[in-house]
From TrEMBL, chain A:
Annotated keywords: GTP-binding, Nucleotide-binding, Nucleus, Ribosome biogenesis
GO terms, molecular function: GTP binding
Bias (Acidic residues) ranges: 480-498
PANTHER family cross-referenced by the UniProt entry: NUCLEOLAR GTP-BINDING PROTEIN 1
Protein name in UniProt: Nucleolar GTP-binding protein 1
Boundaries of every OBG-type G domain copy: 169-355
Gene Ontology cellular-component annotations: nucleolus
Pfam families documented for this protein: NOG1, NOG1_N, NOGCT
Region (Disordered): 402-423, 475-498, 548-677
Family: Belongs to the TRAFAC class OBG-HflX-like GTPase superfamily. OBG GTPase family. NOG subfamily.
GO BP term, example: ribosome biogenesis
Automatic annotation (TrEMBL), chain B:
Classification via SMART domains: TRASH
Protein name: Probable ribosome biogenesis protein RLP24 isoform X1
Species name: Durio zibethinus (Durian)
Alphabetized CDD domains for the sequence: Ribosomal_L24e_L24 (cd00472)
GO cellular component: nucleolus
A Pfam family this chain is assigned to: Ribosomal_L24e
Keyword flag Nucleus: yes
Compartment(s): Nucleus
Family of the protein in this entry: Belongs to the eukaryotic ribosomal protein eL24 family.
GO MF annotations in UniProt: structural constituent of ribosome
InterPro entries to which the protein is assigned, alphabetical: L24e/L24_sf (IPR038630), Ribosomal_eL24 (IPR056366), Ribosomal_eL24-rel_N (IPR000988), Ribosomal_eL24_CS (IPR023442), TRASH_dom (IPR011017)
Statement: the UniProt record of this protein carries the keyword S-adenosyl-L-methionine: no
Length: 677, 168
């Protein structure tokens, strides 16, 4: 509530900081990059935005300041006066006014420069306009710098003002300095006010709270007042005067009858009389303090007279309120804060007087009618003298009695646990209270999991029935399956057929493989006519084997082959048998010559792989005759002999072309370490 | 303790295995092993990943609808214990399991039947067409049974002359 707490006002920055804040915010929150190549409307917009943004921020912040500081006319007059006393109303208003004008000025500046920016025709011009606008705004703020500082000081001080509620029950303590007001305050509330032997220890108002009859009372401790003309009073005294003037409170005027404060009773009485106008309509109690030093009875005559005068005045105020005049004791009280003698009595008296006064006022005001409507206690009028106590049926009483007895007799689980060894040793059998159809089942263990299924998912009272149904179904289904299978079985192949099929597939795959080999190496292989087969593959034996595998009788074919091509084969074999080095081309007339020899080496024509002598010329090699071949062989051997003797590396020796290939010795390792890549 | 199903591959998750992931909308995803978990994190759809049960069921590879599945239903309300029911249930589980697996097997067999028939037909055709690779037409004419020929031919023995030294 603004009324009695000024703690929530935002900090007022000083001029320089203010400018810094706003300008840095403008720089951060608006776009910063602009080039002179942009469209002119874009440039203008860019700078206008900056000017506007700055103006808006200033406006916001200044408005916040103006709104948050309290307006002295709008708040409770006590606070208004207090603030006036402390800070001087005029200065305060002036400062706020200056802030206001600054705000308006900045708005005007912004408006003007935006208007100018609308017609800026180059980046440079727009930029200068913006610089000028911001510069002027900042100058305005610089000029109001002192006002801002002043407002900041005020704010700090206001935040520390005690939160006094002007409308609640209040007790005000006043009197000369050093009479014991603060000590009293310390005694009845939890406030911890400084108590020192020198005057003006308390320099401002202090608030404490105390309770009486379940109600909370504010107790306000004021600085001491001296007896001076009104105009001469300083700020501190003015605080207490303000409090006295505006707060509707019970006033405790403190009197030091021992004189140890340094002021005589006469002076104090004089003060009393000078400010008694402030005590109008307030319950007044005169408290004589420090009775341990000087009891009231042993006062001198004059002092006693003065005191009585004051008392009379006080009684007059009581009369003025229309209170009971008989309550004389409630007007002049004695106490000693040192011995705590009578302190409580004073407090109670003050609170009582205040409460009574407030209640009276409330009763007289219009609002009471609203309250009275809410209070009504209905008491039925007794019809006759018959006693009618509350009625409790007998059954309920019996049940209650029984329950009470049971509570004592029943053995709890905790008792059981304690008997059997305590918490760690005994674990209670949770199953014993189960409600089952048959009590023997209480300790049954049912597995939760069976064969990868949750047993609880299967539990069903009529599972047997369903199972029977299922099995019936299954029987039917299986019968059907068998029928269909039976039909299907006819089409399978017999084992011999399967064998034949396997052989077919194997043969086929072999053919394909061979074809692939042949196909791929056609370019690298020398094309030698097949009739000169080097490896003696195509022999009659082979043919015979193949034919017999196919199921034919090969003997006829073999005989025919022998009879036909015997000459060639035999000539070759004859040559082989005798000597190599014959001419390779087969003359047709040769076979006639060699017919004689045929019979001998008939058998030799059987195709059988033999190792050839080194001088024999094989058709694919490219030699003219065996002599050439032998010479070539010799030359080759000779060329290599020397090197071999020197144990030098030859063609057949392993050679590593690059000892350190780059890809194995450089680069990062994807896996492993550099030691072993 | 409950056996759960893996969200990705639908296999059972035994206690102590796998990972559970709870999403911000409080949906729980359970995985049987890190393979499924990693696949899930890669946002793969189990219905498109061949080896999962979801795929197989969706594409008709495995049995989807059967009365044996009705027996296994998650019950949220516990039933009062009854020994007889418990006994019967335990026995029934085994039988139901057997029936279910039989049916699943038959399902797959039926599915593969068409392929089998086709392959048999192809084999027969190949046998008929390519029998010439292993059996000469002459032999076929004599014995038209599509079996491998059983003739063993004696090649005349004159090997003694050959046993001479090769080098002459």
């Amino acid at each position: 509530m603004v009324q009695y707490s000024f703690k929530k006002i935002t900090v007022v920055p000083n001029g320089k900081d203010f400018i810094d804040i706003i300008l840095s915010r403008t720089q951060r929150q608006t776009p910063t990059v602009v080039h002179k190549g942009y469209a002119i409307s874009r440039l203008r917009q860019f700078y206008m935005r900056k000017v506007k943004y700055t103006q808006q921020n200033f406006h916001e912040k200044l408005t916040a300041i103006i709104d948050e500081f309290p307006r002295l006319d709008d708040i409770h007059p006590f606070y208004g006066d207090l603030l006036h006393v402390l800070y001087n109303k005029d200065h305060y208003k002036l400062a706020l006014g200056q802030i206001n004008t600054a705000r308006n000025l900045i708005s005007k500046i912004a408006k003007d420069y935006v208007k100018l920016l609308k017609y800026g025709d180059s980046l440079y011009r727009c930029k200068s306009l913006k610089v000028a606008a911001l510069g002027r705004m900042c100058t305005v703020i610089k000029r109001i710098g002192p006002s801002l500082a002043y407002l900041e000081q005020i704010r700090q001080h206001m935040a520390r003002l005690p939160s006094i509620d002007p409308n609640t029950r209040t007790i005000l303590i006043c009197g000369y300095p050093n009479v014991g007001k603060s000590s009293f305050m310390n005694k009845i509330t939890r406030a911890d006010v400084d108590v020192q032997p020198y005057a003006f220890t308390t320099k401002s108002l202090f608030v404490g709270h105390t309770d009486y009859k379940y109600l909370r009372y504010q107790v306000i401790d004021t600085p001491g007042i001296l007896d001076r003309p009104f105009e001469d009073r300083n700020i501190i005294e003015m605080c207490s005067i303000t409090a006295l003037a505006h707060l509707r409170a019970a006033v405790l005027f403190f009197l030091d009858i021992s004189g140890s404060c340094g002021y005589s009773i006469a002076q104090q009485a004089a003060l009393f009389h000078s400010i008694k106008s402030l005590f109008m309509n307030k319950p007044l109690i005169i408290v004589c303090n420090k009775t341990d030093l000087q009891p009231l009875d042993r006062l001198s005559e004059e002092d006693m007279k003065l005191v009585m005068e004051m008392k009379a005045e006080a009684i007059k105020t009581v009369m003025g309120q229309g209170g009971e005049p008989s309550n004389e004791e409630g007007v002049l009280l004695t106490m000693s804060t040192l011995t705590q003698d009578g302190v409580i009595a004073v407090k109670n008296a003050a609170c009582e007087r205040l409460l009574n006064q407030r209640v009276e006022l409330k009763m007289k005001s219009k609002k009471i009618n609203d309250c009275l409507n809410r209070f009504h206690v209905a008491i039925p009028k007794p019809r006759d003298q018959k006693e009618r106590p509350p009625c409790i049926p007998q059954a309920v009483l019996e049940a209650k009695a029984k329950q009470a007895a049971e509570q004592e007799k029943r053995k709890t689980e905790k008792d059981l646990e304690d008997e059997n060894g305590g918490a760690g040793v005994y674990s209670s059998n949770l199953r014993k209270n189960y409600i089952l159809a048959n009590n023997e089942w209480k300790e049954d263990i049912l597995p939760e999991i069976l064969d990868g299924h949750n047993v609880y998912d299967f539990i069903d009272p009529d599972i047997l029935l369903r199972l029977e149904e299922l099995e019936r179904e299954e029987g039917l289904r299986q019968a059907e399956e068998e029928d269909t299978e039976f039909e299907m079985d006819g089409n399978e192949l017999s084992p011999e057929e399967q064998e034949a099929l396997a052989a077919i597939r194997k043969k086929k795959s072999l053919l394909i493989q061979q074809h692939r080999i042949k196909k791929s190496t056609a370019e690298s292989r020398p094309t030698v006519p097949r009739k000169f087969d080097k490896y003696r593959e195509f022999t009659t034996e082979r043919m015979g084997r193949q034919l017999s595998n196919m199921g034919l009788d090969p003997s006829m074919a073999i005989n025919r082959v022998r009879s036909r091509s015997r000459g060639r084969k035999r000539e070759r074999s004859f040559d082989r048998g005798d000597d190599g080095g014959e001419a390779m081309d087969m003359d047709v007339d040769r076979p006639n010559k060699m017919l004689r020899v045929r019979s001998r080496s008939l058998s030799m024509s059987r195709s059988r792989s033999r190792s050839r002598p080194p001088s024999e010329v094989v058709p694919g090699e490219g030699f003219k005759d065996s002599a050439q071949k032998v010479k070539a062989h010799k030359l080759a051997k000779k060329s290599v002999k020397k090197r071999n003797k020197d144990a030098r590396r030859g063609e057949a020796d392993r050679v590593i072309p690059t000892l350190k290939p780059k890809h194995l010795f450089s680069g990062k390792r994807s896996i492993g370490k550099t030691q072993r890549r | 303790m409950r056996l759960e199903k893996c969200w990705f591959c639908s296999s059972t998750i035994y206690p102590g295995h796998g990972i559970q992931f709870v999403r911000n909308d409080a949906k729980i995803f359970r995985f049987c092993r890190s393979k499924c978990h990693k696949n899930f994190k890669m946002k793969r759809n189990p219905r498109k990943v061949k080896w999962t049960k979801a795929y197989r069921r969706l594409h008709g590879k495995d049995m989807t609808q059967d009365s044996t599945f009705e027996f296994e239903r998650k019950r949220n309300r516990p039933e009062r214990y009854d020994r007889n029911i418990a006994e019967n249930t335990l026995k029934a589980i085994k039988k139901i399991d057997k029936i279910r697996s039989d049916r699943a097997y038959d399902h797959i067999k039926n599915r593969l039947k068409t392929g089998k028939i086709q392959r048999q037909k192809q084999a027969r055709k190949q046998l008929e067409q390519d029998i010439h690779l292993v059996k000469a037409p002459l032999a076929l004419a004599q014995d038209s049974s599509l079996h491998l020929p059983k003739i063993t031919v004696n090649v005349s023995q004159t090997w003694t002359e050959e046993n001479q030294p090769m080098e002459e």
